[in-house]
Amino acid sequence: MKAAWERAASEELEAVVAQLCFCLHRFLMQSKAGKAFRKFLPLFDRVLVERCAAETVTKGGIMIPEKAQGKVLQATVVAVGSGARGKDGEIHPVSVKVGEKVLLPEYGGTKIVLEDKDYYLFRDGDILGKYLD
Asked: Are strands 74-80 and 46-51 parallel, antiparallel or unpaired?
């Protein structure tokens, strides 16, 4: 049996968490990624990502020319679809969430330009992994 102060603290904590989730949602919707998300929503098991910028300077301060830079395989998830429908008819959710950093394959994906920014659309199964903080 919980004491009255424990119940009150638990309810207060739930209210704070709900408020934080609401604020985070508003922030994402107001950011550029959020604006792109409102204009484009992936379907089924598709994931919309924004590739990270390539490093143009080494740690020692040497400038790397564009032709010598490799393809950036790290990206941030901008939007996800609802999930793929399995043979049993149930929807299997996408394995990544908005805001997570993922590892992409070197080739593949569909390039999409939204608000003069390049985004890429991948299937959930094509994403190689996600980075843990």
From this structure: antiparallel
pLDDT tens-place string over residues 29-55: 545 444 545 577 888 888 998 888 777
Residue 20 scores a pLDDT above 70: no
CA distance 2 to 63: 62
Tell me the C-alpha distance between 36 and 120, whole Å.
12
Cβ neighbours of 104 (radius 10 Å): 22
* C-alpha to C-alpha distances, 17 to 3, 29, 97, nearest whole angstrom: 21, 18, 18
| Amino acid at the residue 30 | Q
Secondary structure E strands in 14-73: 46-51
Name the pTM for this structure.
Answer: 0.63
